Amino acid sequence: ADAENPKVDDADAENSKVDDVDAKNPKVDTDAKKAKGDADATKSKVDPDAKKSKVDPDGKIDLLGRKFVSISNFRGRIYVDIREYYEKNGESLPGKKGIALSREQWDLLKKHSDDIDEMLLAKLA
After folding, report:
1. pLDDT tens digits, residue range 27-73?
2. Residue 87 and residue 5: Cα distance in Å, rounded?
3. 8: buried, middle or exposed (CB in 10 Å: 19+, 13-18, 0-12)?
4. Helix (H, G, I), strand (E, B) or coil at 21
5. Maximum distance among all alpha carbons in the chain?
6. Is the pTM of this model over 0.85?
7. Residue 66 — left, alpha, or beta (φ > 0 → left; ψ -120 to 50 → alpha)?
């Protein structure tokens, strides 16, 4: 975790490990994995009005599937934190999977939301 982005998404590291494992194990059908991922993406369509996201008392917005958005403060810097939570002893705790965006990164993401929507719709078509 570096000072600029304290909670770095481990997905890239995990994805490279999966690629290494797939290369070493020819029995793994990566096309089947991709097809399953595509099927999961299409069946996980959620009606935006089905559950209106509201800020809970802890200051988190529920994105469904144990994923939440909150504002965090780390070493005096403010971040938009998008993170998956897990439950331990009846308590909801932030997990490693997630990303903390600086204000500048958050503004850029918002600026490109229409582009992201277009890319998503193209993949779903």
Report:
1. 444 444 444 444 444 444 555 555 565 888 889 999 999 999 999 99
2. 24
3. middle
4. helix
5. 49
6. no
7. left
Angle, CA of 26, 29 and 34, to the nearest 5°: 140
User: Which two structure tokens, joined as six digits, stand for 89?
Assistant: 């002893």
Alpha-helical regions (H) of 1-125: 11-24, 30-43, 103-111, 113-124
Question: Side chain identity at 92, as an amino acid letter?
Answer: S
**Residue that the structure tokens 């078509």 belong to:** 125
pLDDT, one tens digit per residue, over 61-103 is: 999 999 999 999 999 999 999 999 999 999 989 999 999 999 9
Q: Which residues contact 2 (CB under 8 A, 6 or more apart)?
A: 8
DSSP state of 30: H
The Cα–Cα gap between 77 and 113 comes to 24
Phi, psi of 45 (to 5 degrees): -60, 130
- As a whole number of angstroms, the distance between CA 1 and CA 49 comes to 36
Q: Positive or negative CA dihedral for 107, 56, 43, 22?
A: positive
Tokens 């800020």 found at: 55
